[in-house]
Amino acid sequence: DASITCSDNYHRQNWMRGAHYTTTKSTSKYSKMISRRCTRCCLLALLLSAALSGSHASRFRHKVPALHGLSVRGGATTGKGTKPAALGKLIKSGVDSVKTSVATTTSNIGETVQRVIPIKKLGVTQVGGGTASISDLTFNLVKAIVGVGVLSLPSGIVAFGNAPSAVIPAVILVVIMGTISAIGFSLIAQVCAKTGAQTYREAWALSVSPKTSWIPTVCALGKTFLACLSYSMVLADSLRAFVPIESRTAMLWSVTAVVLLPLCWKKDLKSLVPFSILGVLGMIYTTLAMAFRYFHGSYQSGSPLLKAVPDALKPTFGSDGWQAVFRPQSIVFVSMLSTAYMCHFNSPKFYRELKDNTIARFNKLVAYGFGVAILISATVAAVGFATFGSASDGFVLNNYAENDLWIALSRFAVSLSLVFSYPISFQGLRDGVLDLVGTPMEKRTNAVLNQSTVAILLVVTMLATVLKDVSFVVAFGGATLGNLLVYVYPALMFGIVSPEARVPSAILGITGAVLGLIGSILCIKGSGGAH
């Protein structure tokens, strides 16, 4: 019997991901590794190519990598990089050989079609083999979104208002931007469902172009690298208040070796669930502590705690209330929110590891995760600004008295939360590095993951020991790279795989591009003013 195999070297990013592919090799070892699944897969490709003619074939050929290179063993005809015209000759000359395989493969074509159609048919999703429940991944998602950056939101409100009523439009903006970010997160998973992609880079390659798949990888790599770098720097400074280590460098290397490395060695998101729960509880406690201090009036005029606060950080209010949101300065707050929910490079990983990962179930995960994150962000922004007004610091916990026991515990909880946020961001960084160097999923063994973890963590830690302030780099990277990954790229990919959704996708993409441009300009102007 003739054996028909795909010889496309890019088989991992094939639209028929469910089928088993083998590449043509000269050795007998590989010539024997031809399964019936591979025969069915290529037979279906031949049938499709025969059904298509002229311009239709040229339009469709780039969608089916299997048509780029076919090898028919058992006959004299071989084609690689075959043109549509020559493909007809290949099919004609191989008809006799194919006939012998038809009898054994016809009964299996239905199974193959069922494997193909769920990936390409709009509105139908591919179910993977994940084992994590929605509740497990919800904690990971909340922890991936909510970091110490949420504690800077009160200072963002100061950009346009200084009266208590400015909280109202601020909370509305927090909800709107969080919802848009959740949509972008879901769109990436839907692209994975329609194309069979397992990573952000594969989603781009299968929807936009394999040749430019390095673009989102580089963007995500830069964003996650800056996030991990800033986390290391903050940890080096914040933990010295609780650990008797005077040297910043010694503190950084100690926490990296004892805490961060074991956490970053975790191979999947499910194994991080217990740590994510602790991190989420830490941020929830901080939110509740801030709310208690506000409603208790602990920092009102004449209170004992207020006397321990420096004058520059004491509550200050003016007359610019909710109407001030219509001023151009409010875009500063919007720009902060545009990347406050950044965790989108991990969307394929969440989708892949979710048990029974239909889009409906994944959207439940997104709703729960982003819903909790929006609630925490809105509460911190509201009670922080309502307590201190225009005096709100960029790290709002600095406004509270040093002898405030509740807030002292909050500072420790934030450090704990930051520690457990690190491995989730680090997984995105590690996956981005492996994507960039072209390491396929099946070759990402424990040894490869361990070695890459140590190497990347060494680079991040060494830079964190040297750098003291990367605020401009992080802010500029968030305004540019973050907006691309959260809004622009998901909208572009989804618009291509779902033509009926191109208009709303275009609106989302343009919105992200505008926010990124405005955020970048404001960041540059702010830096210039500061220096």
Instruction: Write down the overall mean pLDDT.
Output: 74
Strands side by side in the biggest sheet: 1-2-3
What structural category characterises the helix and strand content?
mainly alpha
- The overall strand count is 3
Q: How would you spell out the order of helices and strands?
A: EHHHEEHHHHHHHHHHHHHHHHH
How far apart are the first and last residues' alpha carbons, in Å? 76 Å
Report strand %.
under 5%
Helix content: 55-70%
List low-pLDDT spans.
1-84, 94-127
How does the overall form come out from the CA principal axes?
Answer: globular
Question: Biggest sheet: strands, sense, closure?
Answer: 3 strands, antiparallel
SS summary, helix count = 20
Radius of gyration: 27 Å
Describe the structure.
This protein has 531 residues and is an all-alpha fold. Helix content is 64%, strand content 2%. The chain is built from 20 helices and three strands. A three-stranded antiparallel sheet has the order 1-2-3, covered by helices on one side. A hairpin with a 4-residue loop joins strand 2 (69-73) and strand 3. Helix 8 packs parallel to helix 14 (330-338). The longest helix is centred in the last third of the chain and has 32 residues, at 405-436. It is globular.
Task: Furnish the topology, listing elements before pairings.
Blueprint: E1 3-6, H1 28-31, H2 36-51, H3 54-60, E2 69-73, E3 78-80, H4 84-93, H5 95-120, H6 134-145, H7 153-157, H8 167-195, H9 200-207, H10 214-238, H11 248-264, H12 273-296, H13 304-307, H14 330-338, H15 347-353, H16 359-388, H17 405-436, H18 446-466, H19 471-497, H20 502-530
Antiparallel strand pairs: 1-2, 2-3
